[in-house]
From TrEMBL:
Pfam families recorded: PLDc_N
Protein's organism: Microbacterium hominis
Swiss-Prot/TrEMBL keywords: Cell membrane, Membrane, Transmembrane, Transmembrane helix
TM ranges: 35-53
Domain (Cardiolipin synthase N-terminal) ranges: 10-55
Keyword Membrane: yes
UniProt subcellular location: Cell membrane
Biased composition (Basic and acidic residues): 68-77
Membrane topology: Multi-pass membrane protein
GO cellular component terms listed in the entry, alphabetical order: plasma membrane
Protein name as catalogued: Cardiolipin synthase N-terminal domain-containing protein
Length: 123
């Protein structure tokens, strides 16, 4: 029986440390404080529910210490090497850019055609 109690205690401590070090935007379904109270009052059930429902598993972020100032910032900065560059333009903006590129290519072709016609006329 002491083994089971020790196992529950270790799971509870791990859940508490994980819940405390998470930023507020990485906690789901309840406020962070409610999860901490839930983990303390019902150690096994609260810890299992924290790992199953409470924390956000989507992206791996680097661990932060208790005093890390990034912990309190609202905007989550993804690691530069881990995330590819995203195109945040709307579809309309992308289509407009493509049309500008096509127009520029047509104008360049027209300029080349006129220059070659001038050179042929001068020779």
């Amino acid at each position: 029986m002491p083994f089971l109690a020790l196992l529950v205690f270790v799971i509870m401590v791990a859940a508490l440390v994980d819940a405390i070090t998470r930023r507020d935007d990485q906690v789901r379904h309840l406020p962070k404080f409610a999860w901490i109270v839930f983990i303390i009052l019902l150690p096994l059930v609260g810890s299992v529910l924290w790992f199953a429902l409470g924390r956000e598993w989507g992206r791996a972020s680097e661990p932060m210490s208790f005093g890390d100032p990034r912990r309190w910032s609202r905007e989550a900065e993804p690691p530069a090497a881990a995330s590819p560059m995203r195109d945040t333009r709307t579809t309309e903006q992308q289509l407009a850019d493509l049309e500008r590129e096509e127009r520029a290519a047509r104008l360049e072709a027209e300029i080349r055609r006129r220059r070659s016609a001038q050179e042929d006329g001068a020779n």
